[in-house]
Amino acid sequence: MKLAAFFLAMLAAMPAAAQSYRDRLPEDEVLYFLLPDRFENGDTANDRGGLKGDRLVTGFDPAAKGFYHGGDLKGLTKRLDYVEALGATAIWVGPIFKNKPVQGPKGQESAGYHGYWVTDFTMVDPHLGTDADFKALVDAAHARGIKVYMDIIVNHTADVIRYRECGDCTYRSRAEFPYGRKGGVAGAAINSGFAGDDIRTPENFAKLTRPDYAYTPFVPAAERQVKVPAWLNDPIYYHNRGNSTFAGESSTMGDFVGLDDVFTEHPRVIAGMIEIFGSWIDRFGIDGFRIDTARHVNPEFWAAFAPAMLERAKAKGIPNFHIFGEVADPDTSALARHTRVDKLPTVLDFAFARTVNAVSAGEVGTDKLAAVFAADPLYEGGEATARRLPTFLGNHDQGRAAFFIRKANPNASAEELLARDRLAHAMLLLLRGVPTIYSGDEQGFVGDGDDQNAREDMFASKVAVYNDNQLLGTARTNAVANFDTDHPLFREIATLAKLRRAHPALTRGRQIVRFAGDKPGLFAVSRFDPDSGAEILIAFNSSPQPWTGNVQVETGSTTFASLAGACPATAAAPGSVTLTLPAFGYAVCAAGKSQ
Q: Per-residue pLDDT tens for 149-175?
């Protein structure tokens, strides 16, 4: 009994977040996304990943934007105070699997610092640390009530497979190069009895024994055993049809810019990938997966994989495992299709990102944002699923919100650019969805565009094209460490994250649009507490001019308390409230009833 009493006392002494983080739903989170190599260097001994030689061997060159810079998992663990202070409740960590250190044509090489060129799916890349370092990170984050999501890749592996016929090979279709012929319809018969990739049974795929139907694939001797698990070294488990054109069947069967495209229709691949990623859940108790290049994998794979991962998580005691796929398309119907056909639980909301950036930059009217939300019923599960879509403004691929805002307003003052960026982040934190902050955005990072140009270091950078950037809200540059908790964007995000967590209406509450126009100006929504039904009115002004007018509310909402910005004490009339918003301002008004 004394032991039980001691345990209960220890449990009571734990922070509330640490006791309850498993119970939070996906929509309750505020995500913070980072690439470990670009976040913080906690151990300089692993900068070269245990390799010896120049940067073309080790991949390490902190002065080059396309190579490893030294950030690692120990560095991230060291900075958990910073992540927690920002108000993030979950960390989405860029891929940590062991990568091919360097690849690319001679003279155009770059490194796998980003994590998307996997060779070993079972271990942490030595540049980032060890499996023990990852466990320490997850445990330390969980102790604070912060979840950890992994970024995973199923569509492709590192570029290891070569073709006898060519180097940069064009895509060859199933019609012109069927599985039953070598090198085209007139070629010699092979794979006798194979009924095609639509018959996804082990018996059928057992008859697919030769991978040379389109090209003749081979693996150079030095890399024949480089992939782990070992079955991934066999070319039979890849499509081997050449580079994708990102259209038609090549979208799911072509090599992703030369990366080896996995044959995800194959039953052995399905079982193998379920085991690979289920093992990370079993070993580390992680809380979610972001799935890279999800739209480039056949739907049937996800229909098997996603439920298997959810079941694996439940067996580990993780009831609210969050899975979202990357479908890099701003068309809501395309995004929704992957929740209905592919059965992905959620997808990253690229439609939201594109529209909020355009609205906050003043390029379009606020009706474009209303149109995004009007399409929420298209998702499998409708508006409830839409509330679980990770929303974002920028990322490591498309670029940063501040870059888009500055590009649209080249003559704007620094004050205006910062105000527009703050408005964009207010929309991100207050509107439906799971807000996702890209590391550096909270420090005013702007970047020079997409991809490598938007992957600046949070620690002091040695990259010249990063260090000449003019940041928002600060006189600092990327040449110094940027973990400033007094930065105006950091403070804004932290305040809004706290507000969001304090009001279930802002996380789990349904949302209805109250006003949108075809020009920059007012955008207003109401969100409702899922238990009490109490209304919170949220209004934004995307115009450089102040806005004053009346906004519809529930007739029962007669008094208002200001949660942010200026709110009236009472309604102007039943069902109407008068608001005044400054240029690029916003207000959050909690409604009540007169006594």
A: 999 999 999 999 999 999 889 999 999
Give the separation between CA 41 and CA 157, rounded to whole angstroms.
Answer: 26
Contact between residue 493 and residue 422 where contact means Cβ atoms under 8 Å apart: no
**Active-site position among 151, 260, 326, 456:** 326
Provide the residue type at 29 as one letter. E
The torsion angle over the Cα atoms of residues 500, 501, 507 and 512, rounded to 10 degrees, is: -30
- What average pLDDT does the segment 313-330 reach? 98
Q: Which long-range contacts (CB under 8 A, 24 or more apart) does 323-326 make?
A: 323/288, 323/289, 323/291, 324/288, 324/289, 324/290, 324/291, 324/348, 324/388, 324/389, 324/390, 325/290, 325/291, 325/294, 325/295, 326/290, 326/291, 326/292, 326/293, 326/294, 326/295
Identify whether the C-beta of residue 40 lies closer than 8 Å to the C-beta of residue 82: no
* Residue of 188, 250, 234 lying closest to 213 (CA atoms): 188
SS3 string, 131-166, reads: HHHHHHHHHHHHHCCCEEEEEECCCEECCCCEECCE
pLDDT of residue 18: 44
Pair 39, 114: CB distance under 8 Å:
no
- Residue 292 a catalytic site member: yes
Is 326 among the residues known to form the active site?
yes
Domain ranges in the chain?
2-159+268-501, 162-260, 508-592
Q: Which of 365, 473, 382 is nearest to 432 (CA)?
A: 382
Judge whether 2-159+268-501 and 508-592 match in fold: no
- With DSSP H G I counted as helix, E B as strand and the rest as coil, what are the percentages for the chain, rounded to 5? 35, 20, 45
pLDDT (tens digit, 9 = 90+) per residue, 516-530? 999 999 999 999 999
Annotated catalytic residue: which of 61, 265, 287, 292?
Answer: 292
Question: Coil, strand or helix: which one is 375?
Answer: coil
Q: Is the pLDDT of residue 198 over 70?
A: yes
In the CATH hierarchy, which top-level class contains the domain 2-159+268-501?
alpha beta
Between the CA atoms of 8, 12, 13 and 18, what dihedral angle is there, to the nearest 10 degrees?
Answer: 110
Structure confidence at residue 1 (pLDDT): 36
pLDDT level of residue 20 (50, 70, 90 thresholds): confident
Task: Tell me how crowded residue 425 is: count the other CB atoms within 10 A of its CB.
Answer: 22
CA proximity to 290, closest of 153, 160, 170, 440 = 153
What is the pTM (predicted TM-score) of this model?
0.95
Give residue-wise pLDDT tens across range 27-65.
Answer: 999 999 999 999 999 999 999 999 999 999 999 999 999
Q: How far apart are CA 272 and CA 234, in angstroms?
A: 13
Of the candidates 80, 134, 115, 90, the residue with the CA atom closest to the CA atom of residue 281: 134
pLDDT grade for 595, boundaries at 50, 70 and 90: low
CA dist list (Å): 441 to 201, 403, 575: 47, 10, 38
Reply yes or no on domain 508-592 having CATH 2.60.40.1180.
yes
